[in-house]
Design a protein that fits this description.
Elements (H helix, E strand, L loop, with lengths): L4 E2 L5 E4 L9 E8 L6 E6 L8 E8 L5 E8 L2 E2 L14 E9 L3 E6 L2 E7 L9 E6 L2 E8 L70 E2 L5 E4 L9 E8 L5 E7 L8 E11 L2 E11 L2 E2 L17 E7 L3 E6 L2 E7 L10 E6 L1 E8 L1
Antiparallel strand pairs: 1-12, 2-11, 3-8, 3-12, 4-5, 4-11, 5-6, 6-7, 8-9, 9-10, 13-24, 14-23, 15-20, 15-24, 16-17, 16-23, 17-18, 18-19, 20-21, 21-22
Amino acid sequence: MASPIYDPPTPCSNPIPGGLTPGKMIFLKGHIPHRANRWSFNLQSGPNPESDVAFHFNPRFEGTNQVVRNHRQSGSWGQEERQGGFPFVQNTDFECIILVQHDCYKVAVNGKHFIEFKHRMSKDRATFLRIEGDVKIRNIAFQGGSVPSMPPGGYAPPTGAYAPPIGGYGPPPHGGWAPPPSGGYAPSCGFIPPPEFNPPGTSFPGSGYPPQPVYNPRVPYSQHIPGGMYPGRMIFISGTPNMNPSRFHINLQCGQHSGCDIALHFDVRFSYGSNYNVVVRNSQQGGGWQNEERSHPYFPFAAGANFDVVILCEQQCFKVAVNNQHFIEFAHRIQPPTLADTLAIDGDVRITSVRVQ
């Protein structure tokens, strides 16, 4: 997977690594302003506004609440498509996946399949992604198709499936994060695709999107992890610390009741007592805390700044990456790790998405 693009200006035009081939996916994560009128993304033949457009996707508020799809060739627009709902809301974050298939483009919004758009011109001609209008893009990522594997710095996506960027991880060649036998790493915030899109409790056979994350849950947040934590299992968490935060924590714990054992306590402390900008790791057994671990190479969190956390369970330890960088390891103190069957998050933080893979 190509390296993600963070906080691009609007408008922006970015080349599509490897072009558009079946299986290629483009992930967009952004925010729609309070008084937005319209915004669009184009898959087009060049970086300029006048380039031919293979796929024009144009959400319009303006009292109409419609998403217009079209193409443009030699300066002329084709027939508009407007049917379908309207999944966008002003003053709200969103995530889009564009999936390229042999006969069409598929678009999912916030984890749900939204529309298909049949190819009207050769997808090979679409070499740029252009975004413009009333939108703030947080990040853009490309995966699949003929995109080369990601350079050192994160986790590599599973072979033959798509995985969400928004974090964009791929394994470094020397040490660090070796992909599990089942397929490897995938980016955070959200999506790791099996061959079908089967969100929890919902089945969309053959739609081709990854399972649906949990979006914007209330904090404190607790989620059961079916089967517990086992080698190769990953958890993707995206969020934003509150302004003027004291602390927040992420726990992998053995149940949901008060006083339960905690296999991994990941406690981000901005200003808590005598603790400033430190991430404390620990475990709890039999109601008692064990020895704290405080060393880490840097402090990757900031008040009001988005973050992506990936927790990977390996045979001997948990590994944690923050914003596409390996951060810490925490050796298992509770065995087997499958006893940790609950994810719990609390404190001064807003969570935008959670995904268990």
